[in-house]
Amino acid sequence: MMHGAKISVAAALALASGGTMAGEEPAFISFQAGVYDVNDDRTAGQFNLEYRSNWKDWTVKPFGGVMATTDAALYGYAGLMIDVIFGNRIVFTPNVAVGLYADGDGKELGSVIEFRSGVELAYRFDSRARLGIAFHHISNASISSDNPGTETLTLVFSLPLNDLIPN
Length: 167
Hints:
The chain is mainly beta. The protein has two helices and ten strands; from the N terminus they run αββββββββββα.
């Protein structure tokens, strides 16, 4: 099963087990730090910066970001995510994205075009800020004959944009 399909199934199961879709959530700026290529031999530090939209008419929300590793790999991406909120505190966020990748001195992924799929599990504070952990798979989905792929594991802090830019 493709990773995107797995995420869709996970989101459907989450909803069926009592989760609710996010309603009036703000836009976020998310900061991530963690481990790139966590399951292989080209492990490096990883840092991401993301903008997460609060488009009110969409259940699925757009986001975009950039990733950099300590091996000088760069990845700019955009995609879609769904926030599934359990109770008032736990947020499960499956997401998919596509972007452009440059390996720098890091792991070669076989293509400039790379796809990312993953999940995030976070705790939501009263301020709506979130602290969580994310796991992602990045690969070129076999659009190239070389498709080693990689996995990432990051700590995520998402700050409501209105906390950074007052009205």
